[in-house]
Design goal:
Elements: E1 2-3, E2 14-16, E3 26-41, H1 44-56, H2 61-84, E4 89-100, E5 104-117
Parallel strand pairs: 2-4
Antiparallel strand pairs: 1-2, 3-5, 4-5
């Protein structure tokens, strides 16, 4: 997965991966742990509507959207923090969540901030004719 970053000094977007290694990339420096988190809650009206929906069963779309938005925000914050640390990649990325009280959830995205480089691309020297 590639996430956009505000760091305009690099020619590539921030690489975010759940794996330890990035194919064809060489790790130049491992900076360390990086994370982004958010805490979200539903409004009272949203909780009531979700409770009514749960009686009938099925997917509660408002909660799905809330969780998707929360994960995206946590991921974006992690990418911003990694860029501020000087990284151009995050490896071993994971999500975690915790319920806080009855109506709040904490979502955290975390991983290892790294600086990686790619080998230079050899120019195409084949003759065309």
């Amino acid at each position: 997965m590639q996430a956009p970053t505000q760091d305009l000094t690099t020619s590539r977007p921030m690489i975010v991966t759940t794996t330890e290694n990035i194919p064809e990339a060489q790790v130049v420096k491992t900076i360390g742990q990086v994370f982004g988190l958010t805490v979200r809650s539903r409004s009272l009206g949203g909780n009531i509507a979700a409770a009514l929906k749960s009686l009938a069963g099925g997917e509660i779309r408002s909660y799905v959207k809330l969780n998707e938005d929360s994960r995206r925000q946590a991921l974006d914050r992690m990418v911003q923090n990694a860029a501020a640390m000087g990284a151009n990649a995050v490896t071993m990325m994971r999500f975690d969540s915790t319920e806080m009280g009855r109506s709040m959830s904490e979502i955290v995205a975390y991983g290892t901030a790294r600086v990686v480089e790619w080998p230079p691309v050899a120019p195409n020297t084949s003759a065309q004719g």
